[in-house]
Amino acid sequence: MHVRCLRGGRRWHRAGGRACVVVRGYSTAIGRNWKRFLEALPLCEPPPHCASRQTLTHRGYDMPSKAAPPVDNAPVKSPATPPKKITIYDVARAAGVGTTTVSRVLNNDPAVKPQTRDSVLATITALGYRPNIAARSTGGGKSRWIALLYQNPVIHYIHPIQQGAIDRCRDADHMLSVHSCQNTGQALIDEVLDIVDQLQPSGVVLTLPLSISPKLIQALRERQVSLVRVAPAGLNDPAARVYFDERSAGAAMTRALIAQGHRRIGFLAGLPEGHPQPDERRQGFADAMLEAGLKVPAAHMGCGSFHFDEALAPLRTMLSRKQPPTAIFCANDDMAAAALQVAAELNLAVPRDLSVVGFDDSYIARIVTPRLTTIRQPLHEMGWEAVDMILRGQATPDMGYQRVLPYQLVEGRSTAGLPAEG
Question: Do 114 and 191 reside in the same domain of the chain?
Fold first, then answer.
């Protein structure tokens, strides 16, 4: 804190006959209590423009009338000069190359010789150079932005994918732009194309359900946009795709129930037939039942729209029948949680009277009692791999690049064995 005098020539300014000081820009009239006021102030250095005998620099000085004690006129220390910002020119000079070569290394140009690349990267590390991503994105070269588009706001689905994409972007010095698309039909296509036109990304990641929209994919293809779909195997399109085999996962879960002795197994789909993702899980269930020679009556099939509330009614119908299933496979964890509630309503103990399994391994599977047996989707890995495909030039719309990731069957406490006769 500085306390300085207000002076005109060699006289103190006064406010109504009282001494007046300025504390951080505020004028304060202190009257006859000025000594007490000054005693409360800390020691301070005088500002340069007030280094004179009229300046208060130490608490306890008497207010001068015509003269004041001499003060220390030592120069005020200026703040330390901030370190110089390292530029691309500094890197080029230290590495013995041109700025164009440094830029090509930063943009992962495959034409740069490995020895040159290693030398430039080592120099960047040694100097602590931090390139300006935004400037590089608008400098006429390849964009450093990647766009991730979603229309499914369910947090346990989109968040891991987004985090995986962010992690890969960070590794490659790229930036991720995330967009929630809420329109439908042509308005959705216009919205997505507007995002692409404004951002000019180096690639686009489409998540469900956008990734299974043929019209949207075709519109992006016509714009020659690099894109990767996070999508199941149901949509036959050559656009690049990262996925896990949901049909195989559905079959594996069903086989696990059959191995425990269950024969009457119900299935609650998320959407009616005709949608690729739920069809894959439903088909996997049907594959395993057919493989075991087991029939599935229509009364043991239902649809719950992937939502807890909407799953309650079909579950009550299914489990109230004369011969209800002894196990039920729900196409996601939300509906499996609904099955636990309906079982409690009907005084069915899980897993003693009814085995329940889900799909996704969302947080719901971990907070319900008993803990659900479910399928863990590699969501984080799919986000990471989708961005990696863009960075490696494998996101061309018609080349058909695909990456298949493993899933995991997570055993909880919601299933139990039955005698072979079920």
Answer: no
Please indicate, yes or no, whether residues 347 and 278 belong to a single structural domain of this protein.
yes
How many angstroms separate the CA atoms of 122 and 116, rounded? 10
How far, in Å, CA of 317 to CA of 52, rounded? 93
- pTM for the full predicted model: 0.66
Q: Give residue-wise pLDDT tens across range 214-269.
A: 999 999 999 999 999 998 776 678 899 999 999 999 999 999 999 999 999 999 99
DSSP letters along 320-349, please? Answer: TSSS--SEEEESSHHHHHHHHHHHHHTT--
Q: Please, what's the b/e burial string for 317-356 (b: 16 or more CB within 10 A of its CB; e: otherwise)? A: ebbeeeebbbbbbbbbbbbbbbbbebbeeeebebbeebbb
**46 three-class SS:** coil
Question: Of the candidates 93, 101, 100, which has an alpha carbon nearest to the alpha carbon of residue 118?
Answer: 101
Dihedrals phi, psi of 373, to nearest 5 degrees: -80, 135
Distance of alpha carbon 304 from alpha carbon 332, whole angstroms: 10
65 token code pair? 């009338």
Say if residue 343 is in the same domain as residue 314: yes
What length does the chain have? 422
